[in-house]
């Protein structure tokens, strides 16, 4: 499998239908045998590149030139191993945050893969991201089943600092899954996975803006199932 890293150049013209996106390949990493299933990619302050491979249960670290530097993990229950496949990886201020699929915990590693502890979360994690202070926004499927617990802000000790009120939350796990990001102003961007809604929150967690993507349905089609 070949992994392509690209830069996206946005040239936004007038109106939502006039947006032009140019993709430019800047780096190619690996050959077919290097990856089985790439889950997520992040970079550190030195522009080293970290790739999670779900089916190999491993994190691979590459230089900014695409040269392999080290690997971490394998399947297992001991230190340095993963019980479930690693799928989320984020970086901030010398710390990597890793989430294993379906687990309610975040593992912290240094950029050299040294263990820095882990914290538990009040439910299986869907997505995470650091803010500029090194705190962590966590979207999860809460054990409480309460809408106010779907998106929370935690510190590295595991303390819940704030809860983000999602007005679009339905109380249904699939429709309450979101993708998270933080911009240079430390605003939180929340994009629902199966609902056509994107919200931007300021650092006080007040909504700045909510919008939809033109041309897409309000939500993905759903079908009731006997198996939740």
Mean pLDDT: 89
Helix-strand makeup class: mainly beta
- Rg, rounded, reads 18 Å
Report the β-strand fraction as a percent range: over 45%
Q: Name the poorly predicted regions.
A: 5-15
Give the number of DSSP strands: 18
Secondary-structure element series:
EEEEEEEEEEEEEEEEEE
Q: Strand order, biggest sheet? A: 3-4-5-6
Number of helices: 0
Distance between the termini: 34 Å
How would a textbook summarize the main sheet?
Answer: 4 strands, antiparallel
Give the overall shape: globular
> How helix-rich are the residues, as a percent range?
under 10%
Oligomer: single chain
Name the features:
globular; 18 strands; mainly beta; 4-stranded antiparallel β-sheet; about 45% strand; about 230 residues
Descriptive report:
This protein is mostly beta strands and 228 residues long. Helix content is 0%, strand content 46%. The protein has strands spanning 3-12, 19-29, 38-43, 49-53, 58-62, 68-72, 86-92, 95-100, 105-110, 115-120, 125-130, 136-140, 151-154, 160-163, 178-182, 188-192, 198-201, 207-211. A four-stranded antiparallel sheet has the order 3-4-5-6, with no helix packed on it. It has a four-stranded antiparallel sheet with strand order 7-8-9-10, with no helix packed on it. It has a four-stranded antiparallel sheet with strand order 11-12-13-14, with no helix packed on it. β3 (38-43) and β4 (49-53) form a beta hairpin. The model is unreliable at 5-15 (pLDDT under 50).
Put the structure in a nutshell:
With 228 residues, this protein is an all-beta fold. Helices cover 0% and strands 46% of the residues. The protein has strands at residues 3-12, 19-29, 38-43, 49-53, 58-62, 68-72, 86-92, 95-100, 105-110, 115-120, 125-130, 136-140, 151-154, 160-163, 178-182, 188-192, 198-201, 207-211.
């Amino acid at each position: 499998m070949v992994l392509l890293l690209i830069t996206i150049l946005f040239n936004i013209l007038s109106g939502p239908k006039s947006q032009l996106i140019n993709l430019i390949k800047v780096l190619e990493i690996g050959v077919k045998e290097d990856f089985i299933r790439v889950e997520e990619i992040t970079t550190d302050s030195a522009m080293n590149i970290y790739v999670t491979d779900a089916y190999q249960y491993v994190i691979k670290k590459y230089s900014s030139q695409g040269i392999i530097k080290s690997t971490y993990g394998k399947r297992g229950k001991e230190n340095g191993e993963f019980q479930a496949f690693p799928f989320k990886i984020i970086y901030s201020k010398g710390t990597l945050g890793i989430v294993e699929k379906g687990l309610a915990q975040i593992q912290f590693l240094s950029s050299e893969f040294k263990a820095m502890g882990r914290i538990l979360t009040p439910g299986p994690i869907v997505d995470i991201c650091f803010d500029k202070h090194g705190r962590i926004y966590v979207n999860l499927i809460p054990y409480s089943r309460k809408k106010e617990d779907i998106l929370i802000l935690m510190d590295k000790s595991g303390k819940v600092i704030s809860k983000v009120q999602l007005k679009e939350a339905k109380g249904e796990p699939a429709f309450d899954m979101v993708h998270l990001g933080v911009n240079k102003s430390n605003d939180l961007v929340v994009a629902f996975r199966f609902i056509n809604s994107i919200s931007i929150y300021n650092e006080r967690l007040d909504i700045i803006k909510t919008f939809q993507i033109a041309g897409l349905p309000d939500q993905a089609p759903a079908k009731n199932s006997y198996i939740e």
